[in-house]
Amino acid sequence: MKNNFTLEIEEMLHIISKPWVQVVIVVLLISLVYLNALPNQFVLDDDTFLANWQLTHDLKNLPVFLTGALPFEHLGDYRALKGIILSLNYALFGVNPIGYHLQALLIHLVSVLLAYLITVQITGKTSLAFITSLIYGLHPVQVEAIAFLTSSSDIIGINFYMAAVCCFILFAKYSRRLNFFLSILFFLLGLLTYEMILTLPLVLFLYLICFEKRFTVNRKVKLVLPYILILAVYIWFRFTFIHLYYEEGYFTGSFAATARVMLVVGIKYLTLLVMPYRLNVNHEVLPGIYSYVGADVNLATIKAPHFMSLPVLGSLAVIILLVIIAIRSYRKHPVITFSIFWMPLALAPVSNMFPIPVLMSERYLYLATFGFALLVGYGFFKLYNRPGSSGKTAAIFIFFMLIFFYVVRSIMRISDWKDSESLWRKTYTEVPGSMMANHNLGMSLMSKGDIDGAIGYLTFAAGHNYGKVAKVHLNLGKAYLRKKNFTAAMGQFSKSIALQEDFYEGYFYLGNTLKDMGLLDEARKNYYLTLKYEPLYFDAYMQLGQLEVQQGHIDTAIHYFEQVISINPLVMPAYYDMAALYIKLGSLDEAQKILEAGLRQDPGSQVLMQALELVKSSQ
After folding, report:
1. Which of 471, 415, 412, 398 is nearest to 439 (CA)?
2. pLDDT tens per residue, range 96-118
3. How far apart are CA 152 and CA 147, in angstroms?
4. CA separation, residue 177 to residues 71, 106, 185 (Å)
5. What is the pTM of this model?
6. Measured between alpha carbons, how far is 68 from 245 in angstroms, rounded to an integer?
7. Segment holding 286, helix H or strand E
8. Apex CA 517: angle with CA 516 and CA 520, to 5°?
């Protein structure tokens, strides 16, 4: 006899077995978790891409993005659709993070629903699809790809990837040409959005091997061949036609040594999937080797691990074990084979086979997490369907506990991304020896006015600046300048220039320091050097204009303010200062013209409106 509790559980499971109920539960639960991100601010590269990338502020620039245009520090990627997407975002949301967070949630939900559909297509089990999509959507390691708003636009590329897989499966099953052409279309769109789609042909071939055993090998190759040809054209176009690639070599100096490090990275990724506990944006892969190797590794003292070292051998043993499990499961449990091989294929584009400046990142796991979710979901499904009631009870209990843990851990991780200070403070607690964590935490504190706190972290960063990043010394100099410690500030600005001779910001802030010290001629020389290396740096013209005002050179000052406006017509202080000079010369008409020109650019400028009223009343 079944007790009332068992009957209630069975009734609940019967209701949940309906696909529309499953979809509603998945969407509502994930939305409840990620709505906690709405108050979060821009962090990391969000200001660079979402607020300050001038190309995205005018929809007329949309054709420019087809050439692969990106902010200077991110050149090397080809993501033609990224700029177009961000331009549309800016037109809709401006610099309001809430709009971007809502869009990020929507993008994530689409990805989760595609994961649900793929699982149904390859297994025919909606209950397994329900379990898989919940794990995939709620796994805490996914938070970085969604809460980091700039990265969330890349997930659109992942959605194209999943949609291409989905349509290909339908084509393989039912031979409908429309599904094939849709899959090709999604593949093309994905290539223009995010490099993670590069391995799609291999994943499609993996699907055919695991689930379409009725096809001959030749038939399988023919089905995938169009994708391979498209990929070959894309690679040729990117590397030979528009010349977009990273110029950095392997951080260890050799492919073999980097490959050994990446073996360890692979197991660290797997550890994060199994136990998503120590999450942060700059993992310590091995002692002294951090995710962002370009700036955070002392290459003079840190060496890649030897092949016979314990981390490498241990990682290799785990990988071999997983491959053996995948091969042995091929006939009876192809889902296991598919899931295991999905994960490394999803990570292959960021495996440093071709060098990139990042060893690992949690957002790179976004696509790979589907393979993990399908594998774990399949385990729950098999446990639940074992003969007897004990398996069902254990599966339900463990699954609910896992989802509860994921929900709580994801909400905690979302809170880490509240703003720059909280993100980098969390990162610092995990990797206190990281130059990057110290530098960025110091910058966050300085932006909030805590200059003494900032100097402490920035001093550590400057002392561990193994990548010789000029901006580290520049920012420490800025902190000293805020404290009026001119000698220390000049020392740091000079170090930044010594590291990078054409570092125009170093000359600019050195000029500011000298100006504040009253050494105007020396300041002028540094402003000239600023403009030598960056002729469009209008701040230098602004400072030169103010310097000439101090020395009574009105005509020269007006010339510099005109240069500012020609470069950036939105710099309102240039209009105000130039009008003030014309008033001093007694040219009220010219002053009025300048103020009116400024108000045409910014009709809401109270300072210019008040100045214009004053000029008119004086005529």
Report:
1. 471
2. 999 999 999 999 999 999 999 99
3. 7
4. 40, 29, 12
5. 0.87
6. 11
7. strand 284-286
8. 80
Distance CA 479, CA 462 (A): 12
Kindly report, residue by residue over 420-441, the tens digit of the pLDDT. Answer: 999 999 999 999 989 999 999 9
- The angle formed by the CA atoms of residues 303, 251 and 260, to the nearest 5 degrees, is 60
What are the residues facing 77 on neighbouring strands?
75
Secondary structure class of 269 (helix, strand, coil): helix
Residue 304 near residue 260 (C-beta atoms within 8 A):
yes
* 461: Cβ contacts below 8 Å, ≥ 6 apart: 435, 436, 438, 439, 442, 472, 476
The one-character DSSP state at 349 is G
Provide the residue type at 127 as one letter.
S
Structure tokens at 215: 């096809």
Amino acid identity for residue 210 in this structure: C
Q: Which amino acid would we find at residue 609? A: M
**Residue 588, burial from CB neighbour count under 10 angstroms (0-12, 13-18, 19+):** middle
pLDDT at 383 exceeding the cut of 60: yes
pLDDT over 60 at 221, yes or no: yes
Percent of the chain surpassing pLDDT 90: 57
Q: Where are the alpha helices (DSSP H) in 290-434?
A: 293-296, 310-328, 334-347, 365-384, 389-416, 420-430
Residue-level pLDDT at 359: 87
The single residue listed with the structure tokens 């409908």 is 176
375, amino acid identity: L
Tell me the C-alpha to C-alpha distance, in Å, between residue 358 and each of 42, 197, 263, 301, 361. 21, 18, 15, 19, 7
Residue among 581, 572, 576 nearest 604 (CA) = 572
Please give the pLDDT value at position 400: 93
Among 70-74, 188-192, 292-296, 606-610, the least confident range: 70-74
Q: Any idea which residue has 């125009």 for tokens?
A: 504
CA 100 from chain center: how many Å? 13
Mean pLDDT of 403-417: 96
Enumerate the H helices of 175-309 as residue ranges. 177-191, 200-211, 217-236, 255-274, 293-296
Residue type, 380: F
